[in-house]
Design a protein that fits this description.
With 496 residues, the protein is an alpha/beta fold. It is globular. The protein contains 19 helices and 19 strands. The strands form 5 sheets. The chain has a 7-stranded mixed β-sheet. Strands 6-5-8-9 form a 4-stranded antiparallel β-sheet. It has a 3-stranded antiparallel β-sheet with strand order 3-4-7, with no helix packed on it. A hairpin with a 2-residue loop joins strand 15 and strand 16. Helices cover 33% and strands 17% of the residues. Bound molecules: 2-acetamido-2-deoxy-beta-D-glucopyranose (NAG) (8 copies). The site of one 2-acetamido-2-deoxy-beta-D-glucopyranose has 5 residues, from helix 7.
Length: 496
């Protein structure tokens, strides 16, 4: 991102620079690597492709094997496959039951009310009978100094049996409760993340907002709330969360980026492009995997300078976008960054279950979306840029997306009910498609893998004010087997 773009970014009206950055970069870097193909408008059906593949190709090709030539030709092509082909539906729709984690874990006996940690007596009654709870205790969790990959715990608190006031600026903590007989048996355990107000910083945020307002005179200020599901293709999103798709497009008039592409096959190149404006190839000129990633100059800083509260949350502390292969940051990059609590939960054997989707008695999606809603609730009238990255639900098994549809649905409803959606751009998206699994071994899965989903939800007043009338934007096509450039659905754009 050059200086000019940065200035524009601060000017509220041009916030979208950020969103489109990754994709325009794609255009910039790859546009000359391929020529336009001739089959852009051809419809391919699953069966069509199947007929043209040998049995071996059909069943075996994946990222490690060479895909059939018609998919890798250096032409620009976007095969038109039917996301609901019956042959695909059979393997692409999984267990749609809403994820529950409370049925195979200790009961949650405590809850947060303001800055108080309280015991839920109703739940105690249900779970073990009132007289049987002995006491609870908690300890605070913080990130280790100069290494945001380790955690430190405070000493355990004094015990309590009703309610206890937490310190003002505490962010993360762990609670455990014990039953009376036998005395020392843990019968409940939970980890919590909170959003501290940090009153001592309020003047700084306010003066930054004022600076931005005087220097750039923004017409309006939108919050940007990004929620990402790792490795979920657009077609798999349509199949796994049909209700969500209908709700977003019909009720919230969201934009569906039907030909959204990727900058690379894994999370790092995609999130790096999106959050820093640089490709992995570019940063590799001065950075290698053993060096701290703080040098990336992620966009959070620029939002902070413009007076925004920033949040970053990622569940997979080891294999996540910025941490796989022992990569790390030395300092948190956003002012609210819940990595310490995720590290603590991961180190607690048996707390994280079912391939990472259950954190104690809570689903990972509920945990992360709650953290985000807590920020919004704490600073309802201050601008925020938030980035919530949910790896574990979809990364290895994309049909699992259906298990958290209900959680996302509630999330959007909360944003609507609180009025927050009326001043926010919400981006629900993914970074790349699936790289392995049954689905990925089919031609459709291969096509899907290059086409992650992205849904943009703007406030209604914002849609009204933008008018793209008359000329339809030209459809853009992409090099199918290289990095894509995106193209929005031209028909929808004109609806603006
Ligand atoms: C592809 O399919 C769509 C929808 O079924 C149809 O409207 C369109 O004409 C088809 N295009 C071609 C080139 O056959
Ligand atoms: C499959 O092969 C037939 C005949 O060889 C050809 O006409 C058709 O275009 C091919 N389809 C695809 C999707 O390449
Ligand atoms: C679906 O998931 C639920 C809860 O996670 C589980 O109880 C149920 O057995 C699963 N059903 C199938 C068909 O896998
Ligand atoms: C307390 O537990 C009951 C029973 O599970 C539950 O319905 C209620 O929502 C809980 N209260 C709070 C404040 O979490
Ligand atoms: C306490 O637990 C014991 C053993 O589970 C149970 O028999 C007893 O009824 C419980 N006490 C109360 C007051 O519920
Ligand atoms: C509970 O107390 C007994 C006796 O003091 C001890 O042997 C045991 O290790 C304790 N268990 C735990 C989980 O602290
Ligand atoms: C949404 O925001 C617009 C522009 O600020 C305002 O005119 C409108 O009243 C708001 N609507 C709601 C429901 O708050
Ligand atoms: C584009 O959007 C329109 C209106 O929502 C829809 O009817 C059409 O099917 C979409 N086209 C594609 C290629 O998804």
């Amino acid at each position: 991102m050059n200086r000019m773009q940065r200035l524009k970014l601060m000017n509220g009206g041009i916030l979208l620079v950020l969103v489109f950055l990754g994709f325009t970069l794609g255009t910039y870097f790859w546009q000359n690597h391929c020529r336009r193909g001739t089959d852009l408008n051809r419809n391919h059906s699953f069966l069509d492709l199947k007929r043209n593949l040998s049995h071996r190709e059909r069943t075996e090709f994946n990222t490690k094997r060479k895909p059939p030539s018609f998919l890798t030709g250096r032409t620009c092509t976007f095969p038109n496959v039917d996301p609901f082909d019956p042959a695909i539906i059979k393997i692409a729709v999984g267990n749609k039951t809403t994820l529950r984690c409370d049925l195979d874990f200790m009961p949650e006996l405590t809850y947060i009310n303001g800055r108080n940690l309280k015991i839920n007596t109703t739940q105690v009654d249900i779970s073990l009978g009132t007289g049987n709870l002995s006491h609870c205790r908690y300890r605070y969790i913080t990130g280790g100094p100069f290494d945001y990959s380790s955690v430190e715990f405070s000493d355990w608190s004094k015990t309590f049996s009703e309610s206890v006031a937490l310190e003002e600026d505490i962010e993360f903590f762990e609670v455990e409760c014990f039953r009376r007989e036998p005395y020392n048996v843990t019968i409940s355990k939970s980890y919590f993340s909170l959003i501290p107000r940090r009153k001592h910083l309020e003047k700084l945020y306010n003066v930054r907002l004022k600076k931005r307002s005087i220097k750039y005179q923004p017409q309006e200020t939108l919050n940007i709330v990004m929620v990402g599901l790792d490795g979920l293709s657009r077609h798999q999103f349509l199949r796994a969360m049909p209700g969500m798709y209908t709700y977003l497009t019909k009720t919230l008039n969201s934009f569906d980026f039907t030909m959204h592409g990727q900058l690379g096959p894994s999370s790092l190149p995609n999130l790096l492009g999106l959050l820093s404006g640089s490709t992995l190839e570019e940063v590799s000129e001065w950075w290698d995997f053993s060096q701290p990633e703080d040098a990336f100059d992620l966009v959070f800083k620029h939002f902070e300078n413009a007076g925004y509260r920033t949040l970053f949350s990622e569940d997979d502390t080891k294999n996540g976008a910025f941490y796989w292969n022992n990569r790390k940051f030395l300092y948190p990059q956003a002012s609210f960054w819940d990595r310490p609590v995720h590290l603590a939960m991961r180190a607690d054997k048996g707390y994280i279950r079912r391939n990472g989707v259950c954190l104690g008695s809570r689903p990972i999606s509920v945990f992360q979306l709650h953290y985000l809603l807590d920020l919004i609730g704490t600073f309802p009238d201050k601008p925020a840029f938030t980035f919530t990255w949910i790896d574990k639900v979809t990364h290895d098994d994309t049909p699992n997306a259906g298990m958290i549809e209900e959680h996302l649905f509630k999330f959007y409803q909360t944003l609507t009910a609180t009025g927050y959606l009326n001043r926010t751009l919400v981006i629900l998206f993914s970074d790349h498609g699936q790289r392995w699994g049954k689905l990925r071994l089919t031609p459709n899965g291969y096509v899907d893998s290059r086409n992650p989903f992205m849904m943009l939800t703007f406030p209604p007043w914002f849609l009204k004010k933008v008018s793209v009338s008359g000329k339809q934007p030209e459809r853009e096509y992409t090099c199918f087997d290289h990095a894509f450039r995106h193209s929005s659905n031209a028909t929808r754009l004109t609806l603006l």
